[in-house]
Write a structure and sequence with these properties.
- Its main location: membrane.
- It is found in: Cell membrane.
- This is Permease.
- The chain crosses the membrane at residues 28-49, 100-122, 128-149, 169-189.
- There is one protein chain.
- The protein is mostly helical.
- It contains 9 helices and no strands.
- It has helices at residues 9-17, 30-86, 89-96, 101-114, 119-131, 136-148, 151-162, 164-174, 176-192.
- Helix 4 packs parallel to helix 6 (136-148) and helix 6 (136-148) packs antiparallel against helix 9.
- It is globular and about 60 Å long.
Length: 203
């Protein structure tokens, strides 16, 4: 059987629909190194002021806090993994992919606005969307919308404390920002990770 030619329309369409890969995640990056250095410096300052007992007291408190957060982190990671398997890749790529245009940014903004839960839910869901075909722009719009507009925090905290007028105008003013952030993210990502040219189209 003959292999499909590089200029086969079906092959070109599959290449167009395939999301561009991002950078591989490293277990230890610059952020981890900087945080570790700050922890070491802070521990040294606490030890100099309060001695070993002060360092151990802080360490014990932080380990207790970590034990309380760990189940939620695990649940969020599992949620992201399950979502990436459940969501139909073709529909997500069509609705939120690189070719979704303004509609993809609006869908990401609307999804972020109604997404419940805290960061242990939002970021695993955003990671799952990237894994199943959403592009950086739509995902950025979703995260920014969840941060600025999220109805859960508005209903539970903002309206009771700040009042309806403040919440309404804050949401109205914030509405364009996720779309603008998503468009800028899409513009920058296309230039940082240019799409490879198929071998048959090279001149």
């Amino acid at each position: 059987m003959s292999e499909p030619s590089p200029k086969d329309p079906a092959s070109a369409e599959d290449a167009d629909s395939e999301p561009r890969p991002g950078r591989a995640r490293k277990p230890i990056g610059w952020s981890t190194i900087i945080i570790a250095a700050l922890v070491a410096v802070s521990a040294g300052l606490v030890w100099r002021r309060d001695g070993t007992d002060g360092v151990l007291d802080i360490l014990t408190h932080d380990l207790s806090l970590f034990g309380g957060i760990l189940p939620r982190v695990l649940a969020g990671c599992l949620l992201g993994a399950f979502i990436s398997e459940i969501l139909p890749h073709e529909k997500v790529s069509r609705s939120l992919g690189p070719k979704s245009g303004l509609m993809g940014l609006l869908i990401g903004t609307a999804f972020g606005a109604i997404l419940p839960g805290g960061p242990f839910t939002a970021y695993p869901v955003a990671s799952a969307l990237l894994a199943v075909g959403a592009d950086f722009g739509a995902t950025i719009a979703m995260v920014v919308s969840w941060t600025l507009i999220g109805y859960g925090r508005a209903v539970a905290w903002e309206i009771p404390i700040m009042g309806t007028d403040f919440t309404r105008w804050r949401i109205v003013i914030s509405l364009p920002l996720p779309v603008l952030a998503g468009a800028l993210g899409r513009f920058v990502y296309v230039r940082l990770y240019p799409k490879p040219i198929p071998k048959g189209d090279e001149t």
